[in-house]
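User: Can you predict the 3D structure for this chain?
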Amino acid sequence: MSTKSTPSLVRWGLLSTARINRSLIPPIRHSRHSELIAVGSRSQTQASAYANEWGIPKAHGSYEALLADPEIDAIYNSLPNSLHLEWTIKALDAGKHVLCEKPMCLTVAELDQITAAAASSGKVVAEAFMYRHHPQTLKVIELVTSGVIGELRLIRGTFTYKLTNPANPRLDIDLGGGSVWDVGCYPISYARLLAGSEPEEVFGWQMNSPAGVDLLFAGQMRFANHFYAQFDSSFDVPFRVNIEVVGSEGTIAISNPYKPGKNDKITLTHNDKTETIPIRGQELYIGEVIDMENAILHAQPPRISLADSRGNIAAICALLQSARLGQPVTL
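Assistant: Here is the predicted structure, written as structure tokens:
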């Protein structure tokens, strides 16, 4: 079936027919070292229809059948948040590598279970935070590391949009819904990335739906060395995205931080001068595909380690706990 050389090839299976799959299918097909060969769904009818729509060679009528397919090397887990733990571990136990959509799971204890399963299986598992691999993010890291804006003092981040469909799983608390899990995780991740460490203390406020899902979340994080982060996320206000990084000697403004494209730009202000830095970008999701290829085929560590994912989940859980308690939480 395959026309590519298998020793330098990662053969992918999609675990579900989720909408986010359409973002990963093109980069898998674009890469010379990946091939999409199968999709799995909860019914054969749905799997076959999806495979026909997207030109996928094999359709499996259950998730179990997909994991049992010996031709598949790696699974993309795009199931709802609450199912990430179960099916990531099942995929690892079946001998498959896993790229799991963010958040990888919903508690630190669950992340520790995934870490143990990955160690036992000897397979790669990584969280799909696509922005982490983009040249724009790598340029921001380069600027911060160079000291051009001095010592880090503050990062402000926003990710909000209107979510009006009441049937959307992001509004279902039993499926791991909520704005902070869906989009607030991005500015939290960005702050931790630039800090190079975990927050020492957090404080959060939330506005909940009648079902208990946060429709709006505002949070603060205190890191070591007097570095602070503020963010908000929401399903209840218009679309807004940005990151501002403030140092003792300058600032970096990123207008499209989480889903940068091929021709974005960032704004650097220092020494009372402002300059625009163009970014020669790339297709947004190709970076995480290449990262998985390098990890699987060349034994390179994934850019987003399981320890990194654990830190993000710990921060989110602490923020949610703070909002429930109405008081700061120390990590």
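The radius of gyration is 20 Å. The chain has nine helices and 15 strands.
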